[in-house]
Amino acid sequence: MLRFLSLRLGRSLLTLVLVVTFAFVVLRLSGDPALLIMSADAPPEAIAAFRRAWGLDDPLWVQYVRYFGAIFQGDLGNSMRDGRSAISLVGERIPATLALTVPALLIKLCLGIPAGVYAALHRNSLADRAVMLLAVAGFTVPSFVLGLLLVLLFAVQLGWLPSGGQESWRHAILPVITLGLGGAAVLARFTRSAMLEVLGQPYMRTALAKGVPWGVAVRGHALPNAAIPTVTIVGFMIGSLLAGAVVVESVFSWPGVGRLLVVAVANRDLAVVQAILLLVAATMITANLVVDLLYGVLDPRLRNGMRGTA
Amino acid sequence: MVEPLVAIRGLSVSFDGLPALRGVDLTVGRGEAVALVGESGCGKSVTWLAALGLLPAKARVSGSVTLEGTELIGAPPAVLDRVRGGRIAMIFQDPASSLNPVHRIGRQIAEALRLHRGLDGRAAREEARRLLDQVGMPDARRRLDAFPHELSGGQNQRVMIAMALAGRPEMLVADEPTTALDVTIQAQILELLAEIRRDTGMALVLVSHDLGVVAETCERVCVMYAGRIVEETAADKLFTGPAHPYAQGLLAALPPMTGPRRPLAAIPGGVPEPWAMPRGCAFAPRCPRRAEACEAAPPPLAEVAPAHRAACLYPGAAAVVSPVPAMVPA
């Protein structure tokens, strides 16, 4: 188990280094922050001074080594726009993002899993077809389209809810629903197919053949098995709690991490973009690790594997 | 005649309009060992899954299955739940996938003990251990905490049998119990089933495509073909004097254990597809004794000798009977 954990941790660190490196190179090759932040018609001396101040005229590898050195001292650099530290800039946006993604995750779980289980248990019934139709619609419609449709209906037509901003909890309703419905649809489909797979397994027939009532067999024998593939998707959703709302935050002008990312990328505000990517990668990796450990709890067949190799 | 334990009458099953069983009549007496043989798809497993209400909802089941007078077809779930495992237990072909992979085997056996004998906690665990001992599981106490994937196929089948015994059933239906196992393990499991039958007086229905397995274990054999029973007789009689040309074909396809080697005789043609079932005898297209009458209507299962019935208008040479047998009263 310890071996499994340390191997996984080592691999996670490697992933983080790769993410940081990739972002570092791509961002610097794809645009000049001096021109984007100072604007192209700024006097050449000012631009040169900006480059010198931020170390942008050093060779790429020198910048890279300097950046890594700083990371290990907990310094992710400062924003080129207002000079504040990237960590605090990102940090103060996190609560706003979580205010959308955590309630959305609850909607996904409370709507998606029961709907999927119900559809599987009533396969080919009218209810199953309705659930699946909604689910397909839910995840084929992109979130910005769904968001705009909701705005059109509830903000423009009915005037019940605000269309954007962050002034009160009422402003959060539409973005939370937009995020939640799409994810619930994905989860419903996934849960349904996992359940159908499990319901057709010989051990379900065995349970019934030994006299276990249908409902008990579903709860005691089918659900624990169907949970195994479903946990993968839920883990992915938890991993994207911070990064999963980029589009929706933009649609609803919600000042979260996602919006900060969009603005920072547009300006090539290098330190901020990298701080966000690092944070997102770290949450993803943590969630994945938790999922892997959960597999071991849920599926005894995988426990031996964990004791051995990763 | 004493009332049979289980009586199946006119049992028919179809899936999406395609027939899988076309009127099966079969009785099993208390403590009797009956085999149901036939090739894959002939309906031998479906017969018992239908009897216990274990077929998927899309299956259309008609006819009657009674357990000491209680009708099981269409019975409410509460009645079926008590019968399943409590009076008729069933074990299956692939023991490894027939056990729930996420539960320890002790828990799976204890579940049956709780349902049918009201045992819980320590009592259930102790009884589960005793059952594992009874089915010859080595180191039974430790095995209670094992998961199915930690055991071999033969051991898992022993667990299945222990679980089946947990409810003290009057009858065990073993659906191809040895097909997925190695030959040496097959013999052990068959020996175990025979031993348990001796000890408990439980009736045994063995569903198999393997005539050798059947010969060792059962007193009476029913041969099925295309959703019907075509011959029913004592096991030794079937091997010495089969009456139905299909049963004769099956035996001719077995390699002889004594005497000179001979080429094995295959039955020509194939089983008719469910959507193209002949109007008359389903075996007629492959039958060497086919006559015009065979294609008119399916022949009834009729007595060709005492305690020997065959569904054939021209039953085999072994039995001396008139070409058109008399109807047997139901």
UniProtKB/TrEMBL annotation, chain A:
Species this chain originates from: Teichococcus vastitatis
Name the record gives this protein: ABC transporter permease
Keyword Transmembrane helix: yes
Membrane topology annotation: Multi-pass membrane protein
Family classification: Belongs to the binding-protein-dependent transport system permease family.
Family annotation (Gene3D superfamilies): MetI-like
The UniProt record lists the keyword Membrane: yes
InterPro entries: BPD_transp_1_N, MetI-like, MetI-like_sf
Signal peptide location: none
PANTHER family hit by this protein: DIPEPTIDE TRANSPORT SYSTEM PERMEASE PROTEIN DPPB-RELATED (PTHR43163)
Keywords: Cell membrane, Membrane, Transmembrane, Transmembrane helix, Transport
Regions crossing the membrane: 12-31, 98-121, 133-160, 172-190, 226-252, 272-298
Subcellular location field: Cell membrane
ABC transmembrane type-1 domain ranges (all copies): 94-291
